[in-house]
Fold Strictosidine synthase conserved region domain-containing protein.
Amino acid sequence: MHDFFEGKSTGRLIRVEFDRNLKPKPSVALDGLGFANGVQLHPDGESLLVSECSRAKIIRYFHSGPKRGQHSVFTKNLPGFPDNIRISSSGQSFLVGMAAVRHSDQFISFMDFLGGHPWIRWGIVQIIPQRYLTSILTLVAQKYGMVVELDLNGKIIRSYHDPTGTVIQGVSQASDDGDFLYLGSFHADFIGKVPKKG
């Protein structure tokens, strides 16, 4: 949580290759990521996606093919802070759970406000013990559940909302079976099931 609050870029994507004796050889594929979270293989077979929660964006990293070792921004300025990414049941889109939303009825989100004030972020992590930061985030976060659906190029094609957080708040994971969304949250001790249409 300290890294998220301070806006540090300490996240990494580790690549593990195995030699002939199946001995693992880890190496850093990407570093400098902002609170790296979800990882999902892309159906192209050559790349994968990594969410940067604190930066509200998703990075595409090419693990094989002609662009091997390169990376680019897959999507940015998301309406929330992305957590896990999963391929949809159709295989033609990605479902991204938003740990928190970035809009507010008052003005901007608390975390977006802190983004422009590094001295406040630094002060928070100096004063408040790590074990209380999640509770504080829960208090200031808007009670809202959101999932965005991205096409295979990173464009938002659909979004699902629980504007009062009644069914689920702070979506950490979204999967589907074609008819229903299955939602996980670090705020809940259950898996939510909601129809995709309706």
